[in-house]
């Protein structure tokens, strides 16, 4: 592994607990080391290491780490005695490092655990400071520090919960909008087939003049049923349409994927296309087209310059749509990691309606892959 790869691995494994542990060690040792002639005493160094280790434990066992910290609040002042630096002159029996560690752990408890646990931990921490105070009049200061850490953690937790609820609501709204859009598109497909059925039923008596009367009666029943269905579909169109666009416009299908890729190539993108599917049901073809369209748009926004491969194949009654893009070679147009990915929500909704499967995830090479498996459960093909 090269030096760049080593640095990347170190950055990936570094957590806030590691950084806080280093800071607590430095705060426990450095002020004393510069403040006193004998400040770099081995006892102080050991106490600093112990403080840092307690913080590191929080990454795996937060409550255990907090409990150890409470023990240190009771015990450590007896080990380093009067060897601390400026803290002792301020009348504060703990090092700045141990104080920071206690505050950080209480913040994490308030951020991650239930309210009853938070209140218990805060009260126990405050009580644990009393035996080391010279005067009961000093008790409010540790209490204020405890309350401040807990308040900060609670505030951050509530804000994150509010943001998560907002994201969930946005996803629900996007899914509802996508379902409405799917319904409009499928309405167009069904209306087309019903219109063709009505026309063929109307033409039966002209194309086949020698049919028996009972057969013609049955055809007339089918014709009326088809016309009634088409009338109801047109009424549904009034509800589903936004008033933008032509309600009779044909919807794209699998045959339009090649033109779609060609238009995307005109932007300068490197796109490889593999089409290995025959005629498919119109609803499946429409969803496959929309999935490829959204995946190509996403690759252009998030991985500009990266090569893209599009594969649409049929195997054992399943249409598999796969769009893969390599890592970006230019700065992304949209690099906000916290922004909800509504396009993926729409893809998932389309696949869910057809009873298929969707995976959308980063690739080991730094790109992204979208794979949709759409069952071909009969129906008219297009």
Q: What keywords describe this structure?
A:
single chain, about 375 residues, alpha+beta, Heat Shock Protein 90, 3 domains, five-stranded mixed sheet, 5 strands, disordered N terminus, disordered C terminus, transferase
Your description of this structure?
- The chain has 382 residues and is an alpha+beta fold.
- It has 3 domains: 136 residues, no CATH class; 65 residues; 122 residues, Heat Shock Protein 90.
- It is 63% helix and 9% strand.
- It has 12 helices and 5 strands.
- A 5-stranded mixed sheet has the order 1-2-3-5-4, covered by helices on one side.
- A hairpin with a 5-residue loop joins strand 4 and strand 5.
- It is elongated.
- Pfam families: HATPase_c, HisKA_3.
Give a quick rundown of the structure.
The chain has 382 residues and is of the alpha+beta class. It has helices at 3-13, 16-35, 42-57, 62-80, 86-89, 96-112, 115-129, 140-207, 213-240, 257-265, 282-302, 342-353; strands spanning 271-276, 308-315, 318-325, 357-362, 368-375. 63% of the residues lie in helices and 9% in strands.
Largest sheet: 5 strands, mixed
Number of helices: 12
SS-derived structural category: alpha+beta
Shape assignment: elongated
**Helicity range:** 55-70%
- Average pLDDT, rounded to a whole number, is 80
Percent of residues in beta strands: 5-15%
Q: Trace the largest sheet across and list its strands.
A: 1-2-3-5-4
Record field, number of beta strands: 5
Q: Kindly provide the radius of gyration, computed on alpha-carbon positions and rounded to a whole number of angstroms.
A: 34 Å
Uncertain stretches: 1-13, 378-382
Oligomer, anyone?
A: single chain
């Amino acid at each position: 592994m090269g030096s760049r790869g080593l640095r990347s691995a170190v950055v990936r494994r570094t957590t806030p607990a590691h950084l806080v542990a280093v800071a607590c060690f430095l705060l426990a040792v450095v002020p004393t080391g510069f403040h006193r002639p004998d400040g770099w005493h081995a006892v102080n160094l050991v106490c600093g290491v112990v403080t840092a280790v307690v913080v590191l434990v929080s990454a795996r066992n937060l409550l255990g780490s907090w409990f150890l910290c409470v023990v240190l609040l009771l015990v450590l002042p007896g080990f380093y005695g009067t060897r601390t630096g400026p803290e002792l002159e301020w009348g504060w029996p703990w090092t700045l490092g141990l104080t920071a560690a206690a505050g950080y752990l209480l913040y994490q408890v308030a951020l991650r655990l239930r309210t009853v646990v938070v209140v218990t931990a805060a009260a126990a921490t405050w009580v644990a400071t009393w035996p080391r105070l010279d005067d009961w009049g000093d008790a409010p200061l540790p209490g204020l520090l405890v309350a401040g850490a807990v308040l900060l953690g609670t505030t951050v937790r509530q804000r994150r919960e509010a943001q998560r609820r907002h994201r969930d609501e946005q996803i629900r709204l996007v899914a509802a909008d996508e379902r409405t859009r799917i319904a409009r598109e499928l309405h167009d497909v069904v209306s087309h087939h019903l219109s063709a059925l009505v026309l063929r039923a109307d033409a039966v008596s002209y194309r086949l003049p020698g049919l028996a009367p009972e057969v013609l009666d049955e055809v007339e029943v089918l014709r009326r049923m088809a016309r009634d269905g088409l009338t109801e579909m047109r009424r549904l169109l009034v509800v589903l349409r936004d008033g933008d666009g032509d309600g009779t416009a044909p919807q794209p299908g699998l045959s339009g994927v090649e033109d779609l890729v060609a238009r995307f190539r005109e932007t300068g993108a490197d796109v490889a296309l593999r089409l290995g599917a025959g005629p498919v049901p119109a609803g499946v073809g429409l969803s496959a087209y929309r999935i490829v369209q959204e995946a190509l748009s996403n690759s252009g926004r998030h991985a500009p310059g990266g090569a893209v491969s599009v594969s649409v194949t049929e195997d054992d009654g399943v249409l598999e749509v796969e769009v893969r893009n390599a890592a970006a070679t230019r700065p992304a147009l949209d690099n906000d990691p916290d922004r909800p990915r509504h396009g993926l929500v729409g893809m998932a909704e389309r696949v869910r309606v057809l009873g298929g499967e969707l995976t959308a995830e980063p690739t080991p090479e730094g790109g992204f892959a979208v794979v949709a498996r759409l069952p071909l459960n009969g129906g008219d093909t297009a």
